[in-house]
Specification:
WD40; mainly beta; 31 strands; periplasm; Rossmann fold; signal; 9% helix; Neuraminidase
C-alpha cells in the first residue's frame, strides 16, 4: 500500500507572517545565510534522536537543492541552538547575527505512541521576527513528509511561491523484471510500484486535478493508453485504437488529453476526452507528430515533428492552427516540456552521440544549454513551481532519474538503486 494512502498530517498555521523583507536572489547568485538547528524534544523523556535527524536531513537536502541558501556551520552554533525557542521573544537573535545568519529554522517534536507532533519555525534574524510557524500532527512514520511540507512553506514565505518538495514523481523502472510504473517522493524515498502489467509501461503524465495518471502500456500487445487512480488502484484502458496510442498529456484544466494516434495510418496528434472519446484531430501530414506538451494556459501545444527534416520542436494553438517551428538549430531535438510559468520550454538535442537538455523561450529566443558531460539526459519535466527539472540520465548502460535546478545547476540522482529508471513526470500539489 502506498505510503501516500495513509491518513496524514494536520498542518496548522500558527502565525500568519507579514510579507518577508529578506532579499531573495536567484540560485547561483549570492545566497542567504541560513542557520538550520536540530529539532529538540518537547519532553526529554520522549527524545527520539532518529526523528530529529531525519527532519533535519530532509530540510537540509531540500533547502540545498533550492540553491538560495548558504548554511551556517552547526559547529559554530552557540547556546540558543540548544533551546527550543518557538516564539520570537524566546530566541537570542544576537547570537545568530554574530554568526552571520539572516534566517533561522528552529523546531521541536513530541512522540506520543505512534503519533508525532512537530512544531517548526522560520525566523528573520535581521528583523528579529517570526516569518512562518507550522504545527504538524501525524504518524511517527510521517516525519519526512512533515519536513517536506515545511520546506515548501519556507520557500513560500521567502519567495511568495510554494516549494515542490511535498509532491511526487512518477517514473518507469524495470526493477521487477518488467517496465512498470512507480511513484516516489521528490528526494527518491518511498519508491512504490503501482502497475503490474508484466509488459512495457511508458511515458506517464499526472492529472492536474486529481491523483491519477495516464500512461502507455503494451499490456494487451498494443501501445494503448491507460488511466489509473492512484489511491483506489482503479485502472481503465482509455484509448486502444489500432496502431499507436502514445505520449498522452493532460490539458492544464484536466478535461482533455493530447496524444499521438495512428489509427488513420500516420502518427498524428489528437485530442480525446478523459473518457477516451475522440474530440479533435490536431495535425494531418505525412510525417510523425509526437510528444505534445501544453502551455500553462492550455491554448497552445508544443510537440515534436520531423516535417522539416530531422525531429524539431513546433508550436501550434490548441485548435491545430498557427503552426511554427521553435528550435532553430540541431538535427535531432526531442521531448519538449512547457514550464508551468510559461516562460520557457525544455527539450533535448542529440549531439556527438548523446542527448543534452536545453531550454528556449516560446518565441524561439534565448536558447540555453543546461546539461554537459557524459551520458544522455532525456525526458525533462518541470516541477510544479518551475524551479526544477527532473530527467533521466543514461550512462554506462544504466538509467537513473536526476533532478536539477532550472538553470542546470545542483544536479543530483534521486532514483533508488536497482533497475533501469526513465520517463519521469512530476505531480502537482499533493494533498494527503
Amino acid at each position: 500500500m502506498l505510503r501516500a494512502l495513509i491518513p496524514f498530517l494536520l498542518a496548522l498555521t500558527l502565525a500568519t507572517p507579514a510579507a518577508a523583507q529578506i532579499e531573495i536572489r536567484a540560485p547561483g547568485q549570492q545566497t542567504i545565510p541560513l542557520a538550520l538547528t536540530s529539532f529538540l524534544p518537547r519532553d526529554q523523556g520522549g527524545a527520539a534522536p532518529e526523528v530529529a535527524a531525519e527532519v533535519k536531513a530532509v530540510l537540509q537536502a531540500n533547502l540545498d537543492l533550492a540553491g538560495m541558501f548558504s548554511f551556517i556551520d552547526p559547529a559554530a552554533f552557540l547556546s540558543d541552538a540548544q533551546r527550543i525557542g518557538l516564539l520570537s521573544s524566546e530566541v537570542d537573535f544576537a547570537q545568530w547575527r554574530l554568526l552571520g545568519a539572516e534566517v533561522l529554522v528552529k523546531g521541536s517534536y513530541a512522540v506520543q505512541g505512534e503519533t508525532l507532533v512537530i512544531e517548526a519555525r522560520l525566523f528573520d534574524v535581521t528583523r528579529r521576527r517570526l516569518l512562518e510557524g507550522r504545527r504538524y500532527v501525524g504518524r511517527l512514520s510521517d516525519a519526512r513528509y512533515m519536513a517536506h511540507a515545511f520546506s515548501d512553506q519556507i520557500l513560500k514565505s521567502l519567495t511568495g511561491s510554494q516549494g515542490p518538495f511535498n509532491t511526487r514523481i512518477a517514473f518507469i523502472s524495470d526493477a521487477s523484471g518488467h517496465k512498470e510504473l512507480y511513484l516516489m517522493d521528490v528526494d527518491g524515498h518511498n519508491a512504490t510500484r503501482i502497475t503490474n502489467h508484466r509488459s512495457i509501461v511508458l511515458n506517464p503524465d499526472f492529472s492536474p486535478v486529481g491523483k491519477e495518471l495516464v500512461f502507455t502500456s503494451y499490456k494487451e500487445n498494443n501501445p494503448d493508453v491507460y488511466r489509473k487512480e492512484i489511491y483506489s488502484g482503479s485502472e481503465v484502458r482509455l484509448s486502444s485504437r489500432q496502431g499507436l496510442n502514445i505520449s498522452p498529456r493532460y490539458r492544464p484544466d484536466g478535461r482533455e488529453i493530447a496524444l499521438t494516434l495512428s489509427y488513420q495510418g500516420n502518427p498524428d496528434l489528437y485530442l480525446i476526452g478523459t473518457d477516451g472519446s475522440l474530440r479533435r484531430r490536431l495535425t494531418q501530414n505525412w510525417n510523425i507528430d509526437v510528444e505534445p506538451s501544453w502551455s500553462p494556459g492550455g491554448d497552445q501545444i508544443a510537440f515534436l515533428s520531423d516535417r522539416q527534416g530531422g525531429p524539431h520542436v513546433f508550436i501550434m494553438d490548441a485548435q491545430g492552427d498557427n503552426l511554427r517551428r521553435l528550435t532553430p538549430a540541431g538535427t535531432h531535438n526531442g521531448t519538449p516540456a512547457w514550464s508551468p510559468t510559461g516562460e520557457r520550454i525544455a527539450f533535448t538535442r542529440l549531439e556527438q552521440g548523446r542527448f543534452d537538455i536545453y531550454t528556449i523561450r516560446p518565441d524561439g529566443s534565448d536558447e540555453r544549454r543546461l546539461t554537459f558531460g557524459a551520458g544522455s539526459k532525456e525526458h525533462p519535466r518541470w516541477s510544479p513551481d518551475g524551479r526544477f527539472l527532473v530527467y533521466s540520465l543514461t550512462q554506462d548502460r544504466q538509467k537513473w532519474i536526476y533532478v536539477m535546478r532550472a538553470d542546470g545547476t545542483g544536479a543530483r540522482r534521486i532514483s533508488p538503486p536497482g533497475g533501469q529508471a526513465s520517463h519521469p513526470a512530476w505531480s502537482g500539489p499533493w494533498q494527503q
